[in-house]
Each structure stands twice: as structure tokens, then as C-alpha cells.
Amino acid sequence: IFGCFTGESDGLLSQSKESMVFLVSEKKQITDSVVKRKDVIKGIVKVSHLDFTITASQKGVITVFNNQRKSYVRFSYFHQDTAWITGCDFLPQLKYVVAVTESTVVVWDYKSEENKNNGYVIKPMKNCLLCVSTVTTSDHLAKDSILMGDDKGYVYLLTMTSDDFIMKQYKAEKESQFRVLDSENFNILKRKLHDDWVGRVKYISALKCFGSCSLDSLRSFVLDDIKRLEDNLPVREFSVPRGVNAFTYCGKAKVVVTGG
Q1: What's the topology of domain 36-192?
Q2: What pLDDT is attached to residue 154?
Q3: DSSP strand E in 162-254: where?
């Protein structure tokens, strides 16, 4: 049960007379251990139309759970690179899983039945990537775009096509499951929107806008058209003392909610 609370003048929280109660269904537990000890889950994504869930751990274990068949497939990235995974998402057109680390973008073909050569690594990325989110505007069957945020306040827009994973491959190392792709061969737009780390990025399809947040007290939250990443026009930004850690959009109430 989740209740809405209001603040009183003495700093205490009291339950509002107009509080709303939200009921959730009984929780389900995955009994299989997703990761080993001393590792943590950094991203959980539910892909509703394909009925599976993706998890990504800090040390590089990406898992796809089939909700209907209760089965899973797993991909390990940690033995290729020492950088930690910081977020993950799903590419709906290309049907790949994408994750970002401190220095690379990892793309995994989870459908591949081959034990090797089913993963791609896009690098180098100059700054430390902290979050990733898919842009759900493309109706092109062979193209997807993702938003990423880094530790310097930049927000990136990276567009990938099916040709990128065919024509621009580097020769894979022997006995390696990764194919290294040069980031210079990709269409990557970026713009500095914050003066601190980008905590979260997300495309809100209902508003046809993207959002990004930061602990920056001056430029805490940005909500604007994705075309602003291509130009230098002013963006719609909001200031919140001590910044914003997270945000989401409620379509029913037509409000954006932030947490700091």
C-alpha cells in the first residue's frame, strides 16, 4: 500500500485527508539467483509486448527472463572490460538489449543461438556514461535511437541501424564473444544540459519530449523536444534546490513528478 503525505509546518509528515491509496498485485519472486554475491542490479526493464524482463548487474551480467515460460538466457560482459554497467534498456526495432558502462555501449543479440559473437561493444566513449533510455519514436524497422547521460552533464542521442552491426564490424578477437565497433562510425549527437552528473534520461512518448535530471541545483530538470539535442536553442529547464534524482510522467493526471 502506498499513501500520499503532506508536510506540516513543524517538519513532520501527516497523512492527507485526500490521500489516495494504490493497491498492487501480489509480488512474484524469481528464485534463481540473478547475480553472485558482491554484485548489484543496476537496471530492470520490462518488455511488455514480448512478455519478458531484462536485468543488468553492475559487474556485467545481463539476463533476459521469459515471464511466460519461466526460462532465461544470460550474457556476461564483465570478463571483457573492467568498467561497471550503469544502466540497460531494450531496442524494440532491432530486437537487441542495450547497456551502458563507464566507457562503452554494449549491444546484445539475445536471440542468437551461438555461444560466441553475439555481443557488440561500441567504444570509445569519452566520458563516463551513467544512464540510458530508448527513444520510442522510430517506426523504421531497422533503426533505433537511445538517450544517454554522462558524468559531465552531457545528454547524448545515439542512432543505430541494422547496417551498423554488419558493415562496420571490427575483426573479433579469437575466442571472443564481442565485436568491437568504433564509436566514430555512429551518428551521435550530444549537448551539455547540466553542470553535474546526469542521473536519469527518458523519452516521454505521450509528450513527444525527452527528460533529463541532475543534482545540479540550477539546471535540475530539462523537459523539451529531442530536436534540442541537435541545436543550441534554449531548452525548457527547471531549478530545484539540491537537484533532482528521478522523475516520471503520469498520463492520467498529465503531470511530471520529480524526486530529489
Answers
A1: Methylamine Dehydrogenase; Chain H (2.130.10)
A2: 97
A3: 178-182, 187-192, 198-204, 209-214, 221-224, 237-238, 246-250
